[in-house]
Structures are given as C-alpha cells and as structure tokens.
Amino acid sequence: MTRCEAIGENRLALRSNHNRGAVGPARGLDRVDQSIIEALQKNGRESFRRIAAQVGISEATVRARYARLCDDDILQVTGVTNPLGLGFDAQAMVGIRTTGAPEPVADEIAKWEEAGYVVVTAGQYDILVELVCADRRQLLGLTNKIRSLEGVASTESFLYLALWKQLYDWGTPVGNGGAVGERVG
C-alpha cells in the first residue's frame, strides 16, 4: 500500500472517528522535523524519497519521523478545500461567551461534525467555532443548539460571504526565540 493510499484510507472516516481534540504544548522539534513539516506544507503529496534527498537523511528516517509527528498530533496531511466552493451554502464563525469555564462547552462542540475549528480564546469571546453547513437552516439549528448548551451566555455569528485567503504554510518556529513563520533553511 502506498503512502497516499494509506492516508486516503485513514482520512475517509476522519470527520466521524478522528477528533484531534485539545492540542497540548509543543514538544521540541529539531531541524529534521521542521524540514519535513515545511516540505509537506508546501506540497502535501511530496514523496518521502524527495524530502529525504532535500534534508540529507534516509527515506526510512523521513517515514519514521512522519509517523511520529502524526501520532503526536503535530502534523496532519489532508486536502484543504473551500467549503463554499464545494456547495456548502453556509459557513460561519461563531463567537461564544460562557458563564463559567469555557472548556466544557468547547469539549461538547468539538464533538460535532459540522465544527471544523474550535478554540478557547482570550478577549471578547471565550470560544470561537467555525461551522460548515449544507444550508442556512442547518446553521440556524446549530447556533440554536449552541445557545441551549449549559454554560453558554451568548453567541454572535459571522456568516462567511466569500473565502478570500486560507493558507497553512506558515513554516515552523525557529529554536529559542525564533519568530513564528520564520522558515528553517
């Protein structure tokens, strides 16, 4: 089985049985990990052989590092789409204010298939949720479902009219004190 076939097989059920959940603090990444990540950010279909040649390591090392990065929830290689372009008629960011700790509300919403992005924030909202829905009626139903959750004080929805920019190629931070987005190599 090729890497692409294995990734495809694993991703078929991604939305229903693989929930990345809360992401913990970053573990130390060395230059090899950073180089592998950046190569895959540029081209998620890049071969392990080509990455190995670029980085100056063996293909087996790339394969092992890739597996570990995936297992540690640091790396996920997937096709990025524009939901509005695929025919989903309603996409929105929902800001949520909670009456207490935001984590229980975030945990509940993170289980929903329509919630592709759930973050606990500091500022005006305690939680931000990105919802992708077939139509506005489904979006209304989900926002009402959010409002009915215990611990939710209020919500504000921001309906997407067009997706202007969506990138995931920001690189990796460089060692001690490096700026996010500052690229290795």
Care to describe what's here?
With 185 residues, the chain is of the alpha+beta class. The protein has two domains: 69 residues, Arc Repressor Mutant, subunit A (Orthogonal Bundle), CATH 1.10.10; 77 residues, Alpha-Beta Plaits (2-Layer Sandwich), CATH 3.30.70. Helices cover 39% and strands 16% of the residues. It contains eight helices and four strands, in the order H-H-H-H-H-H-E-H-E-E-H-E. Strand 2 and strand 3 form a beta hairpin. The two termini are 32 Å apart.
Structure, briefly:
With 185 residues, the chain is α+β, with helices and mostly antiparallel strands. It has helices at residues 3-12, 14-17, 31-42, 48-55, 59-71, 83-86, 103-110, 136-148, and strands spanning 90-98, 115-120, 127-133, 152-159. It has a 4-stranded antiparallel sheet, covered by helices on one side.
